[in-house]
Amino acid sequence: MRLGRVRFKLWVSHPDPDRLNIDQLKDLAVRLLAEIAELKRTVDEQRAEIARLKGLKGAPRIKPSKPSGMEKATDPAGGARGERRRRGKIQPRVEVEDRTLTTVVPPGSRFKGYATYLVQDLVLSAQAIRYRREQWVTPDGRTITAPLPTGTEGHFGPNLRRFVLMQYHQGQSTLPRLVTLLQSIGVSISKREVQRLLAEKQDGFLEEAREVLRAGLQSGTWISVDDTGARHRAANGFCTQIGNDRFTWFGTRFCKSRANFLDLLRAGHADYVLNQAAFDYLRRRGLPGSLITRLDEAGETQFADHAAWMAFLDRMGIVSPTKAHTATIQDPVQIATEGARWGSIFAHGFLRDAVILSDDAGQFAVGHHALCWVHAERLVHKLEAVTDAQHAAQARMRTLIWNFYADLKAYRAAPSPRRRLGLRARFERIFRRRTGFVILDRLLARLHANKAELLMVLERPETPLNTNGSENDIRCQVTRRKISAGTRSDAGRDARDAFLGLVKTCAKHGIAFWNYLGSRLNVPGQPAIPFLPDLIRARPHPA
Question: Could you give the CA distance from residue 273 to residue 260 in angstroms, rounded to a whole number?
């Protein structure tokens, strides 16, 4: 029965030769020869694979998914264990109150002074104040009412507002737990009222967060960027982190394209600008020269918003390709829009000669772009080697990369032209190697193609070698995503991003977020905290 099925299959694919003419027989012979050649090639590949597998000793060694450890291992002080850190004396951050404790002693005892014992405690209680506001009627009939104390907005005081913001954003509490905590203390408050305290009337904080981004983009010599998933309006979105050692800012949108990233870099500005920076961008992205000339000769350079810009492109006759050609033809409208946004970034003084450091995500590759070495080495670390020869090649390449990374760290600390030339030559020797491990060799060729971005540190030693700072910053957004279902309103989304960015920015300047909130909410007796953008601009760059 099985043989009969095979003969039937062959007869269907190749009919009886006796019934074919000479031309049909020739076509059949050509097809059969092609099939035989393909079968031979498949057999040769399988023989080579079998021969390779015969060289295995035991089961293949598959590495568990874990960090490679290159950053810590190449730290000059990372290999040696220092002395165990001892706990220092407790230094209270508040004023210490002295209380004298007495005791009963036998007659004739001598007084030997006091033995101090420091205790820190927390007073957490609800307070309700009924203000009796004087009301007066002036001779001309006007009613004058005594004003409320500074910082009182609505029926919840500034200390309560500060506690809610602190617990939710820095403490990463959930809304139901926060409501339960407040009610257990004795505060009469509902879930809806707590939600309003978190999302509504936060214009001052939102404005300061936007100015933080602008100050960071204007004054920084480099920025580090990253993104992660975020939920908004019951849909998946993306939260982008922008920051450096002075500031952190977050922005959540529904896409993670390069156009979206350029929009975030405009820091709230909505204009489009055609200037030299914009035209340079258009040339790098390969926009046809005829279209660039048409845009240049139009004479218009400033556009107030997206509608004005799209109307201009329509007048210029620049339209998107049809759906049938979108897979093979670049969209000139998209590229022109990206260029005009890049021009707006430069027009507002942002990212002037600053380096953008990323993990090689395509949307971040704009301007002076640098790549993270930890992510590059991680690609080698994650390769699944099978044979002993592949394991040896992988281990050898990781050792070379680790040593090179350690020397790049040393170069950052003490740059010199001689070291720079030597490191460039070493990069060529390392990443032009051919190990015989095909997948590894392809990866090395890919990393070599990114030479300019991986070696940006040689020209700009102030640029970090990794995006660890961004990953540490964005971890708070990941935590919030795990404990919360996301935001429902744009106001809630913007408030979440703004406050988490302000928490990180305060930490980078050594400011307690509790004190920052007390200063902004006009809590009586709280120290004044300077405007964060002013601190960002005033902070000197490292030598």
Answer: 16
Q: Half-sphere exposure of 453 toward its Cβ, with a 13 Å CA cutoff?
A: 25
Half-sphere exposure of 501 (CA within 13 A, CB side): 31
- The total domain count for the chain is 3
214 vs 325: CA distance, rounded Å? 39
Distance in angstroms (rounded) separating the CA atoms of residues 478 and 172 = 11
* One-character DSSP codes across 313-379: HHHTT--PPPTTTTTTS--HHHHHHHHHHHHHHHHTT-STT-EEEESS-GGG--SEEEE-HHHHHHH
What would the pLDDT profile of 239-273 be if each residue is shown by its tens digit?
Answer: 999 999 999 999 999 999 999 999 999 999 999 99
Residue 3 has pLDDT above 50, yes or no: no
Cβ pair 343, 278 in contact under 8 A:
yes
Q: 380 with 483, same domain? A: no
Element (H, E) at 432: none
Q: Return the amino acid letter for 308.
A: A
Q: Tokens 């506690």 appear where?
A: 163
In a domain, 525, yes or no: yes
What are the pLDDT digits (tens) for 41-54? 888 778 777 766 66
Whole-structure pTM value = 0.82
| Length of the chain in terms of residues written | 543
String of DSSP letters for 461-473: TTS-SS-HHHHHH
- Using 50, 70 and 90 to split pLDDT, how confident is the model at 87? low
Report the C-alpha dihedral over residues 185, 187, 190, 196, rounded to 10 degrees. -110
Residue 505 and residue 411 share a domain: no
Co-location of 353 and 493 in the same domain: yes
Query: Residue 143: in which H helix or E strand, if any?
Result: strand 143-145
Structural domain of residue 22, as residue ranges? 1-36
Shared domain check, 263 and 212: yes
